[in-house]
């Protein structure tokens, strides 16, 4: 009964979708590995990550603050995950998609996160830039970043 009530509350929650893009001086394979390898992910985020390159596998990042399940993997091209932050309403998940595309000697990452609780949108919009894109830029070298 409680789970059904929580699901109903999550379905009624107002949500938003975030879209961002970043250009990294790395190959799609290097970017994919940084996002999907626990050790490399921990290196660029400076926090513990547990990630497996397996559809259906659970993951956690930022010392357990973010967690979820990997829904789709196309090596070096696409990652789709069911994703939530620790303080989100119980049972509520967003969907994150990383699409990787080679552009010369760089990789363009097109990122989408849907079903973000509306009141947390601005925090997450800034958080992805600060904790992912800026860290990946530093990890791979000087890059360009732009918002779609």
Architecture blueprint of SSEs:
Blueprint: H1 2-12, E1 15-24, H2 28-36, H3 38-45, E2 58-61, E3 66-74, E4 78-85, E5 94-103, E6 106-117, H4 121-140, E7 144-146
Helix pairs in contact: 2-3
Q: How would you summarize what this structure contains?
A:
With 148 residues, the protein is an alpha+beta fold. 32% of the residues lie in helices and 38% in strands.
Describe, in plain words, how this protein is organized in 3D:
- With 148 residues, this protein is of the alpha+beta class.
- The chain has a single domain (2-146), classed as Alpha-D-Glucose-1,6-Bisphosphate, Chain A, domain 4.
- 32% of the residues lie in helices and 38% in strands.
- It is built from four helices and seven strands; from the N terminus they run αβααβββββαβ.
- Strands 2-3-4-5-6-1-7 form a seven-stranded antiparallel β-sheet.
- Helix 2 (28-36) packs across helix 3.
- The protein is globular, with a radius of gyration of 15 Å.
- The model is unreliable at 142-148 (pLDDT under 50).
